[in-house]
Amino acid sequence: MASSSSSGLTFKLHPLVIVNISDHYTRVKSQTNPPPLTSTSATVNGVEHQQQAPRVYGCVIGVQRGRTVEIFNSFELLYDPSTHSLDRPFLEKKQELYKKVFPHFYILGWYSTGSDAQESDMHIHKALMDINESPLYVLLNPTINPAQKDLPVTIYESELHVIDGIPQLIFVRSSYTIETVEAERISVDHVAHLKPSDGGSAATQLAAHLTGIHSAIKMLNSRIRVLHHYLVGMQKGDIPCENSLLRQVSSLLRRLPAIESEKFQDDFLMEYNDTLLITYLAMFTNCSSTMNELVDKFNTAYDRHSRRGGRTAFI
Amino acid sequence: MEGLVTQIQGLSGTASDVLSLQNLLKQADDSLHAESTRLPPFLDQLDPSKHSLGYLYFLEACTAGPVTREQASSFVLTIARFISSCVAEQIRLAPDKFISVCKRFKDQVLLLEEPLRGVAPMLTAIRKLQLSSEHLTALHPEFLLLCLLSKCYKTALSILEEDIFEVDQPRDLFLYCYYGGMISIGQKQFRKALELLHNVVTAPMSTVNAIAVEAFKKYILVSLIHHGQFPTNLPKYASSGAQRNLKTLCQPYVELASSYSNGKIADLEMYVEANKDKFESDNNLGLVKQAVSSMYKRNIQRLTQTYLTLSLQDIANRVQLNSPKEAEMHVLQMIKDGEIYATINQKDGMVRFLEDPEQYKTCEMIERIDSSIQRLMTVSKKLNVMDELMSCDPLYLAKAGRERQRFDFDDFDNVPQRYNI
């Protein structure tokens, strides 16, 4: 598998496809029964059962205009392990249905999950070649790697290369960009963050809002830290000075708020104090209610002459 | 005896050796007690900083019998030296012996009528015995008693600042809070005194004890001085025994509180005169007088709620003081203590009452609130832990199960109950 394609096509991927594939994988993984082994029986068997991550398969559809290939949507397909191919009749039925609604969409290729493309995938790839002469293979890596910065999605094309004198089809990686429309962005965001759709109670809304702000601030903090580290290195002389970067940093700094007056301080501190006081009050209420319950329990348990009779229900 | 000494000297090295030494000493304890008069010379062979456990056993056996005045002073020296140089880990293996040694130390110091000599060693002893600063040992009330008798209140305050979460014996808590309350009153820290006395009065007790009764009397008086009012009902976390009986046992004080709330100084003073001997017999006359003088403060504070400006003469009339000069003195004192906000215009003798100038705009306020929030979070965590412990308590579950309302047959499940046949 070579590293870059030479076909000259530009690929645009919509986030809906990514969400679809990941949802498919998650569903299948959570629906397969977990291995019933405990740690003791594993040692008895002597064989370590590795939980094989299930692979899911499907088709991607979209539009090809000139040199630009835009992948809009995807649907799922069953993989037949005996024939090592995808379910063909189902695929054709689905293709007809989609044609009725989206006449411009073509089957552009197929998707699967895994960490890397495998040799057996070439079978499926070749089978699709009669629908589309150069199908795409979209691969999603479901393992969560916290160090990784970009999306674990790769798009492969097939190219005919001469290896050891034999012309062979191999997968080559292609670069892609993410493209989205406003409507799609809102709905994908909604689904991805699992926001309570009916508004939820005030507490869950507040919690969701604050979590969002917290993660945003955390990301901002880590990026500023990276910049700071870089600048310190430049100052010490470990890293060669790069003037364009320094200009960008200084323009960023100049955009910071420039209010430093007395009135601003006063108002800001007053508002800060108000928020702190409210938090304090909330904690107080929380503590008082815990203490109240504790005292009630204590009195019931240990006080010899406590009030007999049924406890009234709290309304 | 000599064999024991050599064993102590040999086995005081590592922790496991010390444990085996402890077993030996426990077995030899009776023989030590039997020969208590012969023991003092052996003490010199042992080094308190290395052989603390052995020294402790010997010391405890030495001091077990009745002690004369001459012996007392030498023992006081030995024990004080021992306390300052002993090793905390070894001491904690035999806490009751240590506690009894320290208690005898206190008795001897009192016998010599020099409580001041005992204060510093007792403080060191507490620090060595405590498992953590939240732990109340039996030595705390002894220490506070020595501080009270020797009138060095400031040292006591450092101990009183710590929050207590674990208590060994309930009696320790009662005595500790009572003495602590008295020390705080002596230092005029009425808020702390109120808190400590409140703890005594509302502590769980199955029967009312004398400490709680005395504490309740002081509690009423301090509450009048600090708050200007006395809540007639104890909070619901006070034991039911306390709620019913304390008020009847402290009748004169309760009546004092009710006449205080009427606001008339003349009536109050008459009442105090009438019951003077009762207050004196409880050693509370000083507090009662302070309560009476705090009445003036209360009345002046009430004036701030009605008037914006007032002349000194008017203040004197309303508060039933004798002259504007006295009124000015009172108002000045209150402004200095931060109890009211006012300015006195000396030219025409007018007093202007002001609002609280705190604007909550400063960084110091932020730090204060932030530290309070942090403290509250730790308290909340502890409370949650206690609440969970309580919910699993079998006594509680038994009673809660019995009192539940039963809605349908499924509710009759197996909660342990007693059958009253």
Spell out the blueprint of helices and strands.
The complex is a heterodimer of chains A (315) and B (421).
Chain A: E1 10-13, H1 15-31, H2 39-45, E2 57-65, E3 68-77, E4 79-80, E5 85-86, H3 88-101, E6 106-113, H4 121-128, E7 136-140, E8 153-163, E9 166-174, E10 176-178, H5 182-193, H6 202-236, H7 243-254, H8 262-302
Parallel strand pairs in A: 1-3, 1-10, 6-7
Antiparallel strand pairs in A: 2-3, 2-6, 4-5, 7-8, 8-9
Chain B: H1 2-10, H2 15-34, H3 40-45, H4 52-62, H5 69-85, H6 88-91, H7 95-111, H8 116-129, E1 135-136, H9 139-150, H10 153-160, E2 166-167, H11 170-186, H12 190-202, H13 210-227, H14 240-249, H15 251-262, H16 265-274, H17 276-281, H18 285-306, E3 309-311, H19 312-318, H20 324-337, E4 342-345, E5 350-353, H21 363-391, H22 394-403
Parallel strand pairs in B: 1-2
Antiparallel strand pairs in B: 3-5, 4-5
Helix pairs in contact in B: 2-4, 4-7, 5-7, 5-8, 7-8, 7-9, 8-9, 9-10, 9-11, 10-11, 11-12, 11-13, 12-13, 13-15, 13-18, 16-18, 19-20
Strand content of chain B: under 5%
Major interchain interface with per-chain residue totals: A-B, 35 and 36 residues
- How would you sum up the global shape of chain B? elongated
Radius of gyration of chain B: 28 Å
Which spans of chain B have pLDDT < 50 for at least 5 consecutive residues? none
